[in-house]
């Protein structure tokens, strides 16, 4: 049993509140350890969430860039297709003219 010093001016019946069995002291120390571990885990979760948010933002920006690039490539492909079809038409008309 642990007896803590009684604060000055505390009535004797209240002084009994300052006497703790050792198992309660152990429980308090275990709780402090558990709280410390929990605090570390929460800090790690906060860091992980921050890292994932940054990564997610980066991936969204990359996706927007790729979507824009894809649209540009589709447009260039359509222009090339139109030109090739026009050349084929001209070649056929030249062939028919001979």
Side by side, the strands of the main sheet go 1-2
Termini Cα gap: 116 Å
Shape: rod-shaped
Count of extended strands: 2
Structural class of the helix and strand makeup?
A: mainly alpha
Order of helices and strands: EHEH
Residue share in β-strands:
under 5%
Mean pLDDT across the residues is 82
SSE layout and pairings?
Blueprint: E1 2-3, H1 12-15, E2 19-20, H2 22-97
Antiparallel strand pairs: 1-2
Structure description:
With 98 residues, the protein is mainly alpha-helical. Helices cover 82% and strands 4% of the residues. The chain is built from 2 helices and 2 strands; from the N terminus they run βαβα. The chain has helices at 12-15, 22-97, and strands at residues 2-3, 19-20. The protein has a two-stranded antiparallel sheet. The chain starts with a strand and ends with a helix.
């Amino acid at each position: 049993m642990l007896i803590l010093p009684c604060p000055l001016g505390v009535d004797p019946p209240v002084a009994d509140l300052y006497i703790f069995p050792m198992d309660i002291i152990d429980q308090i120390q275990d709780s402090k350890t558990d709280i410390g571990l929990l605090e570390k885990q929460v800090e790690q979760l906060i860091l992980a969430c921050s890292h994932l948010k940054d990564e997610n933002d980066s991936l969204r920006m990359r996706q927007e860039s790729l979507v824009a690039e894809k649209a540009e490539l589709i447009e260039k492909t359509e222009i090339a297709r139109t030109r090739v079809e026009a050349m084929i038409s001209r070649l056929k008309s030249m062939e028919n003219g001979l």
